[in-house]
């Protein structure tokens, strides 16, 4: 029995199919929570569930991205962006950064992407959620000491999406590491 939709991913074609799934599923989460599609930050994470899969995808990522000398770099800039054409109202999106997450057999998710809001709008939404003045369907404050984000989720959808500001999304692409 296969426990995960895509894992173990074994080649570039399977990776690209997983990325397309992550893309459209995350936009589905965004629409369900906000009633519209938010701007995309341009980074995409693919989650591994097996050690061999992680080794293979890390090797593949090294072929697809620029090297980095930053310790524990999370996102790597792609040599050639991954472009997913518009479909069914979901806008065309250009992914410039790729992240391969280490195996976590206890989480079934295929991957994640980041959306962003203007700083003032994001701060008002975050504060309203924290203070109980507003609920966001399928949204919750991401529990982290180092980043300020709202997590979008649905137990019936095997991806996660995050919402923050453009500045936070840019910081995450450049420096954040789990």
What does this structure look like?
With 178 residues, this protein is of the alpha/beta class. A seven-stranded mixed β-sheet has the order 2-3-1-4-7-6-5. The chain has a single domain (12-174), classed as 2,3-Dihydroxybiphenyl 1,2-Dioxygenase, domain 1. The model has no long low-confidence stretch (mean pLDDT 91). The protein contains four helices and seven strands, in the order H-E-H-E-E-E-H-E-E-E-H. It is globular.
Q: Brief overview, please?
A:
The protein has about 180 residues and is α/β, with parallel strands linked by helices.
Task: Looking at this protein, list some descriptive labels.
about 180 residues, alpha/beta, 2,3-Dihydroxybiphenyl 1,2-Dioxygenase, domain 1, seven-stranded mixed sheet, 4 helices, about 35% helix, about 25% strand
The major β-sheet equals: 7 strands, mixed
Number of contiguous helices: 4
* Intertermini distance: 30 Å
The order of strands across the largest sheet is 2-3-1-4-7-6-5
Shape: globular
Q: Quick one: how many beta strands? A: 7
The CATH topology name reads 2,3-Dihydroxybiphenyl 1,2-Dioxygenase, domain 1
Mean pLDDT rating: 91
Question: Roughly what fraction of the amino acids lie in strands?
Answer: 25-35%
């Amino acid at each position: 029995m296969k426990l995960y939709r895509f894992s173990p991913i074994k080649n570039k074609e399977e990776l690209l199919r997983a990325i397309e799934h992550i893309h459209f599923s995350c936009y589905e989460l965004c629409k369900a929570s906000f009633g519209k599609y938010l701007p995309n930050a341009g980074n995409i994470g693919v989650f591994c569930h097996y050690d061999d899969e992680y080794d293979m995808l890390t090797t593949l990522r090294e072929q697809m991205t620029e090297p980095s000398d930053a310790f524990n770099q999370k996102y790597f800039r792609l040599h050639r962006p991954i472009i997913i054409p518009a479909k069914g109202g979901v806008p065309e999106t250009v992914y410039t950064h790729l992240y391969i997450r280490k195996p976590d057999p206890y989480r079934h998710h295929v991957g994640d992407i980041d959306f962003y809001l203007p700083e003032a709008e994001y701060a008002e939404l975050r504060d309203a959620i924290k203070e109980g003045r507003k609920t966001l369907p399928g949204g919750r404050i991401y529990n982290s000491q180092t980043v300020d984000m709202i997590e979008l989720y649905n137990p019936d959808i095997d991806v996660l999406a995050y919402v923050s500001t453009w500045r936070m999304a840019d910081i995450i692409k450049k420096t954040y590491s789990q």
